[in-house]
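Margin note from the TA: students keep mixing up input and output lines. Inputs are the sequences; the output is the structure of the whole complex. Example:
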Amino acid sequence: MNKQDNNKSSYFYGLVHGIYTLLVGMETSIKVFFRKKTTEQYPENRKELKMFDRYRGTLTMPHNENNEHHCVACSLCQMACPNGTIHIISKTIDTDDGKKRILDRYEYDLGSCIFCQLCVNACPHDAIKFDTNFEHAVFDRSKLVMKLNHEGSKVVEKKKES
Amino acid sequence: MFDFSIITNWLHQSLLSVMPEVWAVVLECVIVGVCIILMYATLAIILIYGERKICAFFQCRLGPNRVGKWGCIQVVADVFKMLTKEIITPNQVDKFLYKLAPYMVILASFLTFACLPFNKGAEILDFNVGIFFLLAVSGIGVIGILLAGWGSNNKFSLIGAMRSGAQIISYELSVGLSMLTMVVLMGTMQFSQIVEEQADGWFLFKGHIPALIAFIIYLIAGNAECNRGPFDLPEAESELTAGYHTEYSGMNFGFFYLAEYLNLFIVSSVAATVFLGGWMPLHIVGLDGFNAVMDYIPGFIWFFGKAFFVVFLLMWIKWTFPRLRIDQILTLEWKYLLPISLVNLVLMVLIVVTGFHF
């Protein structure tokens, strides 16, 4: 055993080192004591309450100001969903370039969603995302089935590359 | 300086004017007893509330805040709930010992509590071997704990009680030795004189290095004496459910609970009395104006302020460190605290003999 090891296992080194580590612990806990508390007093602070950004509350489909979304009705999210929560009903329309499949209804059943975020990860166009709204209570189960695309919305036209 | 003996003397004189002295003394004893019990209960409520709040703050929570403003009557409600609960006696217990145990614990706690000098002239038990008496009666508590463990006829209780016994008896040595170190410096064991002698500086400053070491050792050992974390393995929930009071319900459990918190207060206030000057205001020699201002603050505020400061220190320790194993507890006592306090005692004697203290 060299001298340093001997030194570390000695009585006085252990004593002083022990006291030092205890003081480090006490310093940490007194910092926490004066820190802002993390408790949220929910119904009272309902107006100010802001959940963290990555919280998975409800699945939504963001629409821009022209009532356009990004969903191309590829139904990858429907396939990714382990519970069959998502149903994509598409329709085919005629355009100048020929036939095209577009989204008709995007149905999302909140009652069977497990908030795994696989649909969001599967989406190639970032058309859907989770928002932080968590107040889901309703009186009827049928109200949990939501249509995510807004009335009269259409997909964002891809900029023609010239 | 407000002198509490004015009130007691006035009470004594006015009682003497209507009844013979024997009856006056008996009546005074009853009044003092009722006052002690009331103070005991009030302090327990304050301490439990403080513990829950301070614990919450150390864990970045808010703590109780629904019953009353900031949850301040939460503990009062808990006490009333406890009083209304049925006291269950399990079938196979040793009935006499089982019922005796909580009273032993609470008796020891009351006796030590009565030794504390709250204010000038407000000492209840004050005689020339005060510290000796305090250490002796605080030892009764361990009998109650052992009886509770044995009488409950429950393995968890018995293991908890044996752990508690081993721990308390070991740490009593360190408490005794650190007190002895201070007695060497103080030259008296009477609480009223101890406080009077600190009029020109608290013993923590007068005895400098050995007093500081004794203070720290006293805090560690005192914390272990009242079975609080990180030395709370007699009631380690994960292993022993609740240790020696597993089988107790209702107010019998309440007595253990009260005694635990009051022992915390007693340890703190003895530390405050012996090391931090008790009810004596902060006096700095030479600054007469400052001393006069400090004298306007009444003694009991100083006493409770200091005691609750030490309570906060102990709670800080409790909510910082993890629980020790039984072998670690005994190693800490027998390999570290005891040799250090023996060396410290010699150091203190040398300092007192050479007159090196203030």
